[in-house]
Amino acid sequence: AQSVAQPEDQVNVAEGNPLTVKCTYSVSGNPYLFWYVQYPNRGLQFLLKYITGDNLVKGSYGFEAEFNKSQTSFHLKKPSALVSDSALYFCAVRDKGTGFQKLVFGTGTRLLVSP
Amino acid sequence: NAGVTQTPKFQVLKTGQSMTLQCAQDMNHEYMSWYRQDPGMGLRLIHYSVGAGITDQGEVPNGYNVSRSTTEDFPLRLLSAAPSQTSVYFCASSYFPDRATGELFFGEGSRLTVL
Prior knowledge:
Chain A has about 120 residues and is an all-beta fold.
């Protein structure tokens, strides 16, 4: 069975500092990995995904994520945080070859960027 | 483009009442789904559809019904509301039902409170 863990309920960072939001996963085969962001009172928005190829994936709003197969991790990163990055971030995973209905979401990590 | 539109945004029900949450998308997506979001639990799949006339159960289907008479619409029905159904509900859609690498497109959510 697929699973994903986001070990931190909240991450605090000062504006201008680098940020990392952690995600580890478990699948039986090869993973499709996704990051979504949820701003207050809004739906989830797609940030980036890893399907195959380069382990460093670049996405929207300057975010990137690094796929590490040996550590089964897909941490979200940004070199310089903005106050506007404050939101709830979800990691999601599904096995390659499975449908959308097999997508499993983490419990979310709240990012708080202070001025 | 309107994307994925959910109505109503807020609803308060009494235990035992019924209601329908509406979801419409104008992107000609084959796949549509309903999730519920509860604190500390991430998103859980209620029901999904891979095309008009085809629906199936997700992780937490009890107490909910769906139908898919058109490609655009995917309503979620609560037949007899219970306090345990107090949650935020999200509709999501995407291209290509199976084995695809695409991401989900989410509506802005419907906050339901059952008293």
